[in-house]
Amino acid sequence: MKVIVVKDYESLSKVAAQHLLGEMFQRHERVNLAITAGSTPIGMYEYLAPEVKGKDYLAHVHYYNFDEIPYFSGKQEGITISDLRRLYFNPAGVPEAQIHVLDEKNYQEQDQRIFDDGGLDAILLGIGADGHYCGNLPGTTKFTDFTTKVNCDEAMKERISGHFEDKEEIPDFYVTMGPRSVMNARHLILFASGEEKAAIMKTMIEGSITDEIPASILKMHPHLTIILDEAAAKLLDKEQL
Amino acid sequence: MKVIVVKDYESLSKVAAQHLLGEMFQRHERVNLAITAGSTPIGMYEYLAPEVKGKDYLAHVHYYNFDEIPYFSGKQEGITISDLRRLYFNPAGVPEAQIHVLDEKNYQEQDQRIFDDGGLDAILLGIGADGHYCGNLPGTTKFTDFTTKVNCDEAMKERISGHFEDKEEIPDFYVTMGPRSVMNARHLILFASGEEKAAIMKTMIEGSITDEIPASILKMHPHLTIILDEAAAKLLDKEQL
Amino acid sequence: MKVIVVKDYESLSKVAAQHLLGEMFQRHERVNLAITAGSTPIGMYEYLAPEVKGKDYLAHVHYYNFDEIPYFSGKQEGITISDLRRLYFNPAGVPEAQIHVLDEKNYQEQDQRIFDDGGLDAILLGIGADGHYCGNLPGTTKFTDFTTKVNCDEAMKERISGHFEDKEEIPDFYVTMGPRSVMNARHLILFASGEEKAAIMKTMIEGSITDEIPASILKMHPHLTIILDEAAAKLLDKEQL
Amino acid sequence: MKVIVVKDYESLSKVAAQHLLGEMFQRHERVNLAITAGSTPIGMYEYLAPEVKGKDYLAHVHYYNFDEIPYFSGKQEGITISDLRRLYFNPAGVPEAQIHVLDEKNYQEQDQRIFDDGGLDAILLGIGADGHYCGNLPGTTKFTDFTTKVNCDEAMKERISGHFEDKEEIPDFYVTMGPRSVMNARHLILFASGEEKAAIMKTMIEGSITDEIPASILKMHPHLTIILDEAAAKLLDKEQL
What we know:
The structure is a homotetramer. By secondary structure, the first copy, chain A, is an alpha/beta fold. Chain A has a single domain, classed as Rossmann fold (3-Layer(aba) Sandwich), CATH 3.40.50.1360. In chain A, 31% of the residues lie in helices and 17% in strands. Chain A has eight helices and ten strands. In chain A, strands 1-10-9-6-2-3-5 form a seven-stranded parallel sheet. A three-stranded antiparallel sheet of chain A has the order 4-8-7. The longest helix of chain A has 17 residues, at 9-25. The radius of gyration of chain A is 17 Å and the shape is globular. Chain A starts with a strand and ends in an 8-residue tail after the last helix. The A-B interface holds A 142-144, 179-180, 183-186, 207-209, 217, 219-223 and B 142-144, 179-180, 183-186, 207-209, 217, 219-223.
């Protein structure tokens, strides 16, 4: 585990983008990346999109989403992939052939598909204030789970309802790469920004391995890079860094 | 995680040796291996020693022990390194400059030293019927521990007493690379032989991640190879392999 | 470049096999190997076949031939792949899905196909007394050639005629991965045995880079391992090793 | 070989910097880079220096110069390292412990030193209109040379005289990593900008391997990335890219 602390959100966005570009440039043959939606990567994708747009020398880079909240009706693509398209794939002009959608129909093949494609070179993860990453929330998946379906109880439906204008479309379940699927990537890159992440970063980095903090397991990975801005890092024991 | 099942102890010994030789031959520059003492590797070292003895083309291979039970008096080298010398370093004629001893005096530098040396390319692990590996026994280390000192209570002293002819030499503590130190290696190779390991292999491979089974954490590593003979594999769910 | 000198043909065969097994065991995901036919590898394949036969844990290993002398009529598979089947694929029971045949019909796609498959992890090469490797003989390919077709003049037809009982089947051309195709592999392993290879090994290792010695270019590769028995190494400048 | 064509010098500088940053971020353990002085990298170092300055998370990155033109008197550091300090090490605040100077006193140990340090992860190269790279000019080194000393004839002294205010300081020789030293790096990154490089880029990329064009050998490397702006790429056969 390596903790990189940068000044602010802008630096965080740039350094995270440099990590992804580094993965892309590491090899001429196929490179596989799983990337995150959400709010943390907005700045990073703004930085990254123009570096990628129209660059045919990046045709070897393949993208995977690692979780999905489907629409109940199934009439449109889910929340995660829609976000990724809006934030990155569309502005960066990533060709469809390089986008490998995980959804409610194919989630049971996700791990085998990634293995057959050569494995993930890197996975970029955000983290929630409750210690979740991907769709691995406290009380949902176990550390030993691969990609799986998670049933939504009422609390979860409430939690995800903000994604849906039409509340009829709130689904009964979502799908996510589980902890073992994530840990199978060769490089984990986790980033967090802002004071509201300071407590969970301290817990995740300095605390014990427990199901209650899903992201706590990630520090057992041999190649985990954590990128934080000063606000998110402010509670860390400086002697340990 | 990949589970390799071979017929018997002889095959196990050979396939484990082939894995280690593969690590040695992967690169011309320095290769770092942490290897295990104990009874499981006896056959493997018998196979390996003549392949290594007198081979100056293996001068780039460096060895580390991952735990040590010292003598109380400190008058001689500890149990683990003595075993490794007897089983492998001596018959294989490994030059002293390629042997990096972990002991009670330098254990606090072990993780930094390995990092500075470029990290471990592979670590070869045995497993106990109680799920321990290295000196990580149930009730001793936590998943988050790096290399550490473990105090020996009376039960532990009893357990290790067989190693000491002179019972005055039973130590108050031992040292071991902790779970995080082990998980930091780029490749974990764990092997087990015989019916008496069948139950723990089922628990370790199919069970949950728990401190009570220290080796359960190992399956979260992105590159774990488990080598078993048929007897040790006989309780495994064949559909999962 | 690293030169490994072993005692005799038997050791050479074993050490070469250990290198290939090491490549197979380096990763759980797909591994791509190009391997050689001819007389040098006979002992190696005898050693290797039982290690591979019936081992479903080697299902991720894919094989490529790097040259082919087709039959004029095209009524049967060519000389190289037939040799490889007889020496290795058949005795080792390698499933057809793991064998990627290069022949006169698909040679123009060979480089792209290998790139799309992730690139060659290793290529095992023999060497002729004239410095040829694969079908790169003096006066045929240029260093800059990728996989290509080589026309057979009368001298070449004479040279390859021993492969054909029915002399009507001697072809007008053969196909081969060219120097650049070979140099694109991540690891080159070249082996040679016997006194009749001593002169070319000295020339190849110690001499200049010249089209007249096709194998001379190989020493510019960042990861070339040369395995020789003492007879093949006997003319080498010992100070340089 | 992969050829990346970008719009202009500014893009070239940024993409080259992204490649170097990618190398730095590929691993937490030591990373070794050999980098170029001269005019092509000026824009890149301007981009790179602020990304590196004051970043203790880049303490694992080590730098090597690959050639040196010493002062005759030996009273000050040579031309190349002085340039690198001015262009990059000083503005980026790279600590002295991470700078590994090649000079006239230690050039004979350069290859062994780099090997002992784990090998070069990447080397960034410029190219001259005559096809030279590092100090490998037409008529100086052979493809088979490792790091070596090159005597300066009158023409060479004339050529390098612009570097010296005091003409008494023009040396009789310079030192350079030779073709084999360079080819031993795991990743070659070569960049060129401007119309005055268009002809040599065509020759280097599309022409044959010849001593007269020293850089022609580089395309035999399994991992060569060439970064060009449109002006430098304008003569290339577009069908081949």
